[in-house]
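Whiteboard transcription, Tuesday session. T.W. wrote the C-alpha cells on the left side:
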C-alpha cells in the first residue's frame, strides 16, 4: 500500500508584496518520483526552500513523514530524512570530493570511519570513486552534479529534493544522472524532481505538479500533463526559454 510521505497543504510564501508561492497543495507518495515544473520564476525553488527549512512559510502546512516541519531548521529537516541539492551547485571547493560526501554522512553518524565508509559507497554509486582525493572545486559541472547526489545520499535520506540536477548537462550526462536517480528510487528513496528538460521529466516521473506564477496550475501523469492545454499555453508551448 502506498503512503503519502510529503504533504504540502495550502502553502504560500510571500516576499513583501511578491507572492512567490500561492496556496499550493499536493502530496508525494512514498517511493515515487514527483516532477515539479513550470516557467522561470514560477516558485519551484522557493517551495523547495520552504520544505527544506530555509524559508519559513507565510501560511499553510508542510508535513513530512507524519510530522509538521513548518518550523524546523534545515539541519533538523535533514536529520528527519530529507536532503536537497542546489540549483547552483556549491560544493566546498577546497575540500576533497571524499570530504564533501563525508560532510553529508555526518548527518547520520558521528563516527569518522563510518562516515568515510558511507561516503566511499556513495561515490561508487555515482561513479566518482576515482576522484575521491581530488579537490571538489576542480571538477567539471557534470561531475559536480554527481558529487551533489553522492553528498545527499550519504545523509541516508527518505526523500530527496533535486533542483535542476540535470541543468547545464548535455544529453549523455543527463542520461547518466537519470540512471543514477532510478537506482536511488530502487533503494526506496522518494524524489521530488525540479527540471526544465521535459524529456527527462516525462521519462522519470510518476506524477507531475505544474507551478505557474506561484500557483499550482495542474497535476497529473506525464501523459496527462503534456496533453493539458493550460500547461501547454503557460509553459510547454515555447513561452519559456528552457522548456
Ligand atoms: N529570497 C528572495 N527574496 C525575494 N524574492 C525572492 C527570493 N527568492 C525567490 N524570490 C522570488 O520568488 C519568485 C519565484 O522564484 P523561484 O526562484 O522560486 O522560481 P523558480 O521556479 O525556481 O525559477 P527557475 O526555473 O528560474 O529556477 C521570483 O519572483 C523570485 O524573484
Ligand atoms: Mg529555481
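and on the right, the sequence the group agreed on:
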Amino acid at each position: 500500500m502506498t503512503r503519502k510521505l510529503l504533504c504540502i497543504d495550502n502553502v504560500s510564501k510571500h516576499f513583501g508584496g511578491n507572492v512567490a508561492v500561492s496556496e499550493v497543495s499536493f502530496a508525494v507518495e512514498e517511493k515515487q518520483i514527483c516532477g515539479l515544473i513550470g516557467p522561470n520564476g514560477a516558485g519551484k525553488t522557493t517551495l523547495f526552500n520552504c520544505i527544506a527549512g530555509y524559508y519559513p512559510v507565510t501560511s499553510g502546512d508542510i508535513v513530512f513523514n507524519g510530522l509538521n516541519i513548518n518550523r524546523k531548521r534545515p539541519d533538523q529537516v535533514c536529520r528527519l530524512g530529507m536532503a536537497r541539492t542546489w540549483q547552483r551547485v556549491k560544493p566546498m571547493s577546497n575540500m576533497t570530493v571524499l570530504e564533501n560526501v563525508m560532510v553529508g554522512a555526518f548527518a547520520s553518524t558521528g563516527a569518522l570511519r563510518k562516515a568515510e565508509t558511507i561516503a566511499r559507497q556513495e561515490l561508487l554509486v555515482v561513479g566518482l570513486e576515482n576522484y575521491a582525493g581530488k579537490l571538489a572545486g576542480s571538477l567539471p559541472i557534470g561531475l559536480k552534479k554527481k558529487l551533489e547526489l553522492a553528498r545527499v545520499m550519504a545523509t541516508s535520506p527518505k526523500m530527496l529534493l533535486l533542483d535542476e540536477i540535470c541543468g547545464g548537462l548535455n544529453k549523455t550526462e543527463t542520461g547518466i544522472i537519470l540512471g543514477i536517480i532510478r537506482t536511488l528510487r530502487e533503494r526506496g528513496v522518494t524524489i521530488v524532481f525540479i527540471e526544465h528538460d521535459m524529456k527527462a521529466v516525462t521519462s522519470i516521473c510518476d506524477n507531475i505538479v505544474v507551478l505557474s506564477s506561484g500557483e499550482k496550475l495542474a497535476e497529473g501523469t506525464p501523459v496527462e500533463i503534456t496533453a493539458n492545454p493550460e500547461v501547454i499555453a503557460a509553459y510547454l508551448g515555447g513561452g519559456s526559454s528552457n522548456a
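Someone added at the bottom: Residues 15, 18, 20, 38, 40-46, 87 surround adenosine-5'-triphosphate (ligand 1) (CB under 6 Å).
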